[in-house]
Amino acid sequence: MASPMRSLLTNPDRYLRSFRLFLEKSTEHQSMREFMERQLPDVIASIGNGKSTINVLSIGGGAGEMDLLILSKVQARYPGVPINNEVIEPSADQISKYKERVAQTSNLGKVKFTWHEETADEYESRMTAEKKSKKWDFIHMIQMLYYVKDIPATVRYFHSLLESQAKLLIILVSGT
Ligand SMILES: C[S@@+](CC[C@H](N)C(=O)[O-])C[C@H]1O[C@@H](n2cnc3c(N)ncnc32)[C@H](O)[C@@H]1O
């Protein structure tokens, strides 16, 4: 039987309403913002050392709220270094909101955005079919692992795409 989370995804409007309601009622984004302010700078402290471009992969980036916060921290750590930010996001509506957010944000001149309208599994299958294994300096999966078919396999695949000094950030809501 499909899980309640998965059935939400088959109805994008209902999913987005539910997610917005969840954000309003929970302290989730507030907690994540605190993490981004206090701990992320240490996490990304060495990801771009010696790099001419920093490659960031966002998996399930949604409307980009957390992504842009992350990018601002990478820019603060590596001022002037170009950033290649690619987003794997299956919802066209979320991608459109993400693009609006980028358009309304200043100081993103050195950031190149690419959106892939597909799931994490579809990205892996496409890369495998095209015999590509692009490496990344920072990969993040924020509040999205609930939706993949096989969590360990997904984490293993994206972990294999990390550069030597790179980091993989996973954020999930805990039961408590
Ligand atoms: C709860 S939202 C989190 C969005 C954003 N990371 C944040 O924290 O604000 C989960 C996102 O994952 C996306 N998603 C759902 N299934 C996915 C999959 N199999 N692969 C990649 N992204 C997925 C959804 O469309 C949604 O934008």
From TrEMBL:
It comes from the Eukaryota. The keyword Transferase applies. Keywords: Methyltransferase, S-adenosyl-L-methionine, Transferase. GO terms for biological process: methylation. It holds the Pfam family Methyltransf_23. Gene3D superfamilies: Vaccinia Virus protein VP39. InterPro entries: HHMT-like (IPR016673), SAM-dependent_MTases_sf (IPR029063). The keyword S-adenosyl-L-methionine applies. GO terms for molecular function: N-methyltransferase activity. Monomer. This is Histamine N-methyltransferase-like isoform X2.
